[in-house]
Design brief:
Blueprint: E1 4-14, E2 30-39, E3 44-48, H1 56-67, H2 79-89, H3 97-118, H4 122-125, E4 133-137, H5 147-159, E5 164-168, H6 174-188, E6 193-197, H7 204-214, E7 221-223, H8 231-240, E8 245-247, H9 254-262, E9 268-269, H10 273-276, H11 279-291, H12 302-311, E10 318-320, E11 333-335, E12 338-340, H13 353-359, E13 365-368
Parallel strand pairs: 4-5, 4-10, 5-6, 6-7, 7-8, 8-9
Antiparallel strand pairs: 1-2, 1-13, 2-3, 4-12, 11-12
Helix pairs in contact: 1-3, 2-3, 5-6, 7-8, 9-11
Amino acid sequence: MAKIVRVEILQVDLVPKAVRTDAIQSFATQETPMVRIHTSDGIVGTGYSYTIGTGGSSVVALLRDHLAPRLLGRDPLDIEAIWKSLFFATHATAVGAITSLALSAIDTALWDVKCLAAGRPLWKEAGGAQASVPVYSTEGGWLHVEPQALVDDALSVRAQGFGGAKIKVGRPHVSEDIARLAAVRDAVGPGFEIMVDANQAFTVGEAIRRARQYEPLDLAWFEEPLPAEDLAGHIRLAASTSLPIAVGESIYHPSHFREYLQRDACAIVQADVARIGGITPWLKVAHLAETFNVPICPHFLMELHVSLCAAVPNAAWVEWIPQLDDITTSRLTIEGGRAKPSSEPGLGIAWDWQAIARLQAFTPVVLSA
């Protein structure tokens, strides 16, 4: 039986290629904490998570001081047991973003080990439900982008075969949002999906008002209209509009998704594998949503989510935002507007270790048995 004999912790900081702004923040730097787990039989699994500019050092400290030491000597295939024990070992800081991001870096590394040991790609090892998933683009729809540029981007990605595009909303007045969205709808016609994302910017009353204005544009969904902790507000909003309400990137435990689904507070779940705590809880959220006949359309992390979406039957979209190009040699494969998961054993991400060495934020931390 293999054991975990060595754990490495490192971080790279990546600058997005495009300016990314939304209704509450700018995305200037992607801190990318990484964990490498070495086993006694020679397998090395790599996992990661991310921040959008703050908190990376806190994730690394939690990994270094509290979580990684508990891995040494354990069977790497005991993924459920390890996740549960690490969650309870840090229960004073859970449920929350920092703990979930740290758990995810470990959990994704363990799944990499599991898939490498089995000689199977993640999408097969985790379920093998569908060989490809429709893809939509977000990279051209940021809040600062003016209407003509939004139109140009939407037409471009449609020509590339993408099935939709996401546009950020939350301009000071609803009329500004409508002008931007209407320009795109007029250009692309009715057969191309438009998603909108408010990044938790609105009050309940303003979200209800804006949803009423958005409805004639036949949007695919209204994402993060309210702060994620406002369950009651989402219930009110969902009951007031025909637009599907999408939530999840700011929810950090499967039980919180259960509350949303039980209360009819959303129609689409967008669990983020890093923010939910890894592949293990992500799969639970996906299957939970399936029991409610609700699709999962995960947030960000396309390089990992493409395999997870292919693993489950109710994944409806992969979100295209290039994230890891500077530190990987693999690229998302898109054919006919559908993203295809890697057939290589493991997570399906080919890391460029020379690039990672150049971009490291600090000397890697190494723990050995």
